[in-house]
Design brief:
The chain is built from eight helices and nine strands. With 245 residues, it is α/β, with parallel strands linked by helices. The longest helix is centred in the first third of the chain and has 10 residues. The radius of gyration is 17 Å and the shape is globular.
Length: 245
C-alpha cells in the first residue's frame, strides 16, 4: 500500500512519497538481517521498497552506515564509531553475522539507483566539520534518487549550503509548541520534505508544510493502525517490523 501515490507535489522531492520506505533497510533480526546493513538494503531492493539509513563519519572522514554514536548495541566492540577508521569498521561484525559496518559507497554500489535512498545524517555538535562535504564527495556521480535529512540543524544548514543540488529534509517531532523552531529552519534552508514522528501527528507544522505542496513522510510505522494514521496526515511511511503492501 502506497500513500497518495498519484498526488502531485511541488519542488524536487515528490519521488520520496512514491513507495514505502524501509527504516534502516528491510531488517529482520529473527532472520539474522540487522539494521543498516547491506543485507537489509538488499532485502529492501528485492521487495521494491525505498531505503532509509543513518550516517556517521569514521576517523578517516569516510561516511559510514550506522545509527548509534557507539558500537555496543549491535557489535561485540565498544566506544565511539567516530574513533575507528573505515577499515576497522569494515571488519566489525554486526550481530555476529557476515555483515559488517558498511560505507556509504558500498551502499550506493549495491542499490545502484534501483530504489530511492533517504540518508539521515547523525550529528555530534562541535565534531561534524567536514562531515557533509565527505557525504557530497561520495554522492558525486550517483544517478539514483537520493535525499539527505537530519534532526541536527547545523547539518541541515551545512547541506543546504554545500550540497544545494541534493533534496534536503528535516527530521522532526513534537507538538505545536515546536512550530516556530521547525518553521524557521525549514524556510531558512528551503527544506524539500519533512520526516515527522507519527506519535505527534496531527500538528500545525506538518499541516502547513503540506499545504505548500511539499511531501511529508512519517517515522517509525510499525503497524497498520499507524499506517492508517499516516495516510490521514502525511504522504508516505518509513516502516519496520511488518509488510505494508
Amino acid at each position: 500500500m502506497t500513500q497518495n501515490h498519484e498526488k502531485t507535489f511541488n519542488g524536487r522531492a515528490g519521488w520520496i512519497a512514491e513507495r514505502p520506505i524501509a527504516h534502516r533497510g528491510l531488517h529482520d533480526k529473527s532472520r539474522g538481517i540487522f539494521e543498516n546493513t547491506l543485507g537489509a538494503a538488499r532485502q529492501a531492493v528485492e521487495h521494491g521498497f525505498g531505503i532509509e539509513v543513518d550516517l556517521h563519519v569514521s576517523s578517516d572522514a569516510v561516511p559510514m552506515v550506522f545509527h548509534d554514536d557507539t558500537l555496543e548495541r549491535l557489535t561485540d566492540q565498544s566506544g565511539s564509531i567516530r574513533e575507528r577508521s573505515s577499515e576497522e569498521l569494515g571488519r566489525i561484525s554486526i550481530g555476529g553475522t557476515a555483515d559488517n559496518v558498511p560505507t556509504l559507497r558500498q551502499l550506493l554500489d549495491l542499490v545502484g539507483g534501483k530504489v530511492p535512498l533517504v540518508l539521515e545524517m547523525k550529528g555530534i555538535k562541535g565534531k561534524d566539520a567536514g562531515f557533509v562535504a565527505a557525504i557530497g564527495k561520495v554522492l558525486a556521480g550517483y544517478h539514483g534518487p537520493v535525499a539527505l535529512m537530519s534532526f541536527d540543524h547545523w547539518l541541515v544548514e551545512d547541506a543546504h549550503h554545500l550540497l544545494p543540488d541534493i533534496p534536503l529534509g528535516l527530521t522532526a517531532e513534537g507538538d505545536d509548541s515546536h512550530f516556530e523552531e521547525h518553521e524557521k529552519i525549514a524556510r531558512a534552508c528551503a527544506i524539500d520534505f519533512v520526516s515527522y514522528g507519527i506519535s505527534d501527528l496531527p500538528c500545525r507544522f506538518v499541516r502547513e508544510f503540506r499545504e505548500r505542496g511539499l511531501p511529508v513522510i512519517t517515522w517509525t510505522i510499525r503497524n497498520r493502525d499507524d499506517m492508517a494514521k499516516s495516510a490521514r496526515y502525511a504522504d508516505q511511511i518509513t516502516f519496520e517490523g511488518f509488510d505494508p503492501k
